[in-house]
Amino acid sequence: xxxxxxxxxxxxxxxxxxxxxxxxxxxxxxxxxxxxxxxxxxxxxxxxxxxxxxxxxxxxxxxxxxxxxxxxxxxxxxxxxxxxxxxxxxxxxxxxxxxxxxxxxxxxxxxxxxxxxxxxxxxxxxxxxxxxxxxxxxxxxxxxxxxxxxxxxxxxxxxxxxxxxxxxxxxxxxxxxxxxxxxxxxxxxxxxxxxxxxxxxxxxxxxxxxxxxxxxxxxxxxxxxxxxxxxxxxxxxxxxxxxxxx
Length: 246
Prior knowledge:
immunoglobulin domain; cell membrane; Transmembrane protein 81; three-stranded antiparallel beta sheet; 246 residues; 27% helix; alpha+beta; membrane; rod-shaped; Immunoglobulin-like; five-stranded mixed beta sheet; transmembrane; 4 helices
């Protein structure tokens, strides 16, 4: 065996080779992806023992779980909710809570009324539970973008997350698609306390509509009679003028 060094190559002697054969070590045979695409997560690795003169069984492997961080920058996620509901924004989530929520420092910032990831538009936001923002009941003025930053005990940033919240008034839009479809197919379901039998309009409304229709009809008939009367009155005069000219 030859060991390489920046300066020169050294050929190992037989005693040194025999000493190396006695050494056993753990190596990573398999490594699984991080459990979180952004922010701090957990990674599972398989370690196997190799080396040494003694026969090592093939089952001499063990699993271990370590922390992993692919990127601390999380993208912008938006959600639309109705005013009056309860909304909970969780920054640590399940993976980081499993490590212990008191091992991290969480801070929140808020950009009111806009959905953005421009950090210059955010101002400090005081969250009562630190790792979560609980809005109960949710109001229209709570709409905007919430940003949370997570630091570990060494003051290193391990996560930054943006959550955009759009708040709609219940009177403006209903997000219940199934209910809206039923109302579209059966208009009578919009008024469950009223029946569709009989007249759809009050009697006074029907009477007023009849009077208006009769008045309009009488006016049109009078106008037609006046036009006919004028036409037949002018016709003899024109005939007399034509006879005089002849």
